[in-house]
Specification:
The protein contains 12 helices and 8 strands. The protein has 340 residues and is mainly alpha-helical. The protein has a two-stranded antiparallel sheet. The chain has a two-stranded antiparallel ribbon with strand order 2-3.
């Protein structure tokens, strides 16, 4: 968070700017440190993420282009070559990270034998603790890809939209700053774990952001047993789409469903009785396994941003594109000024 605001400091007083590039870079570096420790440089992490995004976007393009559905036509397409190039980058980077991590672990085992305090383990360490036949290199690669991409892009997009909404509603920004004042005073100290539980209004702002702008507007599910609905019956063996956007704009949220209103999360009586009405972290058994980490990292980020800056934005000018996630293409610029 501190590195993010230090980078954004250069934009103070310079008018409207694209805050998303700062946010996405920050979350990418954060998740790489959490998952991989210092096995990759920021430049390598950027290359890795770019290759993964190209791979995802390429698959979406294939899905949207009906003549590329058959393998025989896809095999000879330019898109196939681009996807193969992205896969090559991902595999090479994954292999390099695995090799470096194993070398570091061997070195650390020697060094830690002379130390009493254990080194904090990152996600990659936990995976490799299961090594020795439990997980293959391919399985470790797959888990690494999942945690980095799921952990960086979704949270980054939530923060991008949260900054826009907070900047669009001065009264929300003021309440947020008042809460930060109660927790931190005028101190610029680092945030600590016990601070996070006190940021109640901030959590409400983040949840309302995820309700108002659904990061993953729909999700696919395979039907494994008969499900009877009001107007139809879903049969086993078929697939279905759950439209979170429609769920989040359903009348069960009340007459103010189309308003950005963080206060709704402060009073359980104003929320839908069914907890599955909110799909910000998905629902059911396959919901987001990293939701606690995501909320902690997002609250930490906002605490640094709004202790230092006042922000202005206009969410009514937003225009979007939808690939795997909902993303802004215009209208997402903000202006900032120092609070101190």
């Amino acid at each position: 968070g501190r590195k993010l605001v230090d980078g954004m400091q250069a934009e103070v007083g310079r008018g409207w700017f694209d805050q998303s590039k700062y946010v996405k870079q920050n979350f990418m570096e954060t998740i790489c440190l959490t998952a991989l420790d210092d096995c990759v440089t920021p430049e390598e992490a950027n290359e890795y993420v770019e290759a993964f995004e190209n791979y995802l976007n390429g698959n979406i393009l294939r899905f949207q282009t009906f003549w590329l559905h058959p393998d025989i036509t896809f095999k000879f397409s330019k898109l196939k070559k681009k996807l193969d190039a992205s896969i090559k980058v991902l595999h090479e980077m994954s292999d390099k990270v695995l090799k470096n991590k194993r070398a570091l672990r061997k070195l650390n085992e020697t060094e830690s034998s002379a130390e009493n305090s254990p080194k904090l383990k990152v996600f990659m360490d936990l995976l490799m603790d299961l090594d020795g036949g439990v997980l293959t290199d391919q399985e470790i690669r797959d888990e690494m890809n999942t945690i980095i991409m799921a952990g960086h892009e979704t949270s980054a997009n939530v923060i991008v939209f949260a900054l826009i909404l907070i900047g669009s509603y001065p009264e929300v920004q003021e309440k947020l700053h008042e809460e930060l004042q109660r927790v931190f005073g005028d101190s610029d100290r680092d945030i600590e774990k016990q601070d996070l539980s006190q940021l109640i209004y901030m959590e409400a702002v983040l949840k309302e952001t995820m309700r108002f702008f659904v990061m993953a507007p729909f999700v696919g599910r395979h039907i494994d047993r008969e499900v009877k609905l009001k107007n139809c019956t879903l049969k086993p063996g078929n697939n279905c789409l759950i439209l979170y956007y429609g769920l989040h704009r359903h009348p069960i949220w009340g007459p103010d469903v189309n308003e950005f209103k963080p206060e709704r999360w402060l009073d359980p009586a104003t929320l839908p009785k069914n907890p599955n009405a909110f799909g910000g972290f998905s629902i059911g058994k396959r919901n987001c396994i990293g939701k606690t980490y995501a909320m902690m990292s997002m609250k930490s980020t906002l605490s640094y941003v709004f202790r230092r800056f006042k922000m202005q934005a206009d969410h009514t000018k937003l225009k979007f594109k939808l690939d795997v996630l909902l993303k802004p293409i215009t209208g997402h610029y903000v202006t900032i000024q120092n609070r101190l």
